[in-house]
Here is the input.
Amino acid sequence: MANMLEEYDHLLNIDPISQYLIEPIKAETLFTASNRKKESLNGEWNFSIDVYNTFYRKKFFNEVTKDSSGKEIPVDFDFNKWEKVKVPSNWNTEKERYFFYEGTAIYTRMFLYEANTENERVIIKIGASNYDSQIWLNKKLIGRHIGGYTPYSIDITNNLEKENRLTIVVNNQRKIEQIPSLNYDWKNYGGIFRDIEVFRVPVNYISDTFFYLSNVNNLDIINAEITLSGESISNQDISIIIKELDIYIKQKTDKQGKAIFSFPCNVQRWDFNNPKLYSIKISSNDDECYEEIGFRIIECKGKEIFLNGQKLFLKGVCVHEEEISKGKALNDDDRLKIIILAKEMGCNIIRLAHYPHSEHMAKLADELGVLLWEEIPVYWALMFENKETLFSAQNQMKELILRDRNRASVIIWGVGNENPDTEPRLNFMKKLINICKDLDSSRLVTAACLINIDSLKIEDRLSNYLDLISINEYYGWYYRDYSTLSTILERSKLDKPLLISETGADSKINYHGFDEELYTEEHQSKMYKKQIDISRNYIQGFFPWILIDFRSEIRMNNFQDFYNIKGLVDKDFKTKKLSYYLLKDEYKNL
Ligand code: GCU
Here is the structure.
């Protein structure tokens, strides 16, 4: 009977998949010291959607194409003859027939490997694949990652051969226990949509660096935490060289392979008008890597925000990571356009909603000088009492912070958006706030909260644990009566800075009419004028929702046609609406 069950496993096994959904990769293993020589696995991959998970049911990964006598047998896969898609990309924009596809897809390719140095370790790093990804190398399942927007890395040294088959199975189905859950207001693009890179490192290598500035008794102090990974990582020499500051400093690693530095310096502070970056070389006995670091200090005092000691009003705007011909697989030109649109409007900060955008966005923001709010998709209703849900949120938070905590432009970590003010959610979010503070004491933490529309007050209990109180409100759109906003702001007694983290209204591009007519550009523009006039004396930051119209399957009226059209600019990244110009004007006087 056993033979029968084995032979017909693909027919008789009701659940052949769960056994491959192994323990997900933990953020703590993320290789972040990746500013060094690398090889790319971007390019043409063989691809197929896999609607019934046949890759697992029929064990395609074993690549059996002959029977025990060596005769060719019919199989239902053709790795090397499948269609080609480019990586990084979203399958939705690669082929018309995949536009609305949600499910499993298989990416596979061959690559050659030959060691450069004896005992080298080889690490693969995937920038992001949405959502549940299982990584196979030479017929072996070597890892699984949960989360659609954060990087993960795997040491593949022990599984490498001269000729290698790398296969990544990606499932972007929305599931109730996931982060985000089943319902959200952006398109669920699937696929491997950020870079895949390979690094060769020595047995003992620098796996993470973290730099931040503090100020003690008016003296600027550079703090650094350098982490080694490998076989013998304690009592190793770590040196930091910042030539421009004439800094050459050395430290030994502790038992955990960590070297902690704290030394006075005379730095030129980074800010969005003067984005000064310092080139830093970090080396250990056997390894070296580089960082481009901006040194700045962001802090709150009472109800005010300060950047490098100067009072700061956050002239913001929200953006999704999307360009409609590429989905979420933006290139640097797209990112540059977004930053230029924001800066030309007079923004000093961009809220990268509602999930981690590409790390290239933060690097570009560091170079061009714009502040960033980065967040994870703890969005709307979630299973706050489910342990997998909590793991996923915590892991994505850690992956985001470990990836971007060297980016001067990032000043805010966002732990959630429009979640209900319940006990389970409060406990869940407090854990996320603790992760932010444990991994990075140098930034501010917030969450875009909802107003209590019963009491007409800003009193989300989570605010007690945040550095900045942020609220999403749509008075003038979902709620037509602006006077309620005045009541709320007047009634809410707050002791911390208040940000309007979202407000907006739909407007169809080039649809004009009387400013009381919904969906006209005139109505959207009037809404912003009223919003700013009412709120300017109560807030320290304003974030219009949203810079650019974006795809969303929940927006189905005839103006929207599966787009959220609250943008200040059309989805073409070019055509600006009246509101863009109004806000540009208003930001001159905020
Ligand atoms: C919410 C939500 C956004 C959404 C917006 C809207 O505030 O945070 O993700 O797109 O409202 O209604 O357009």
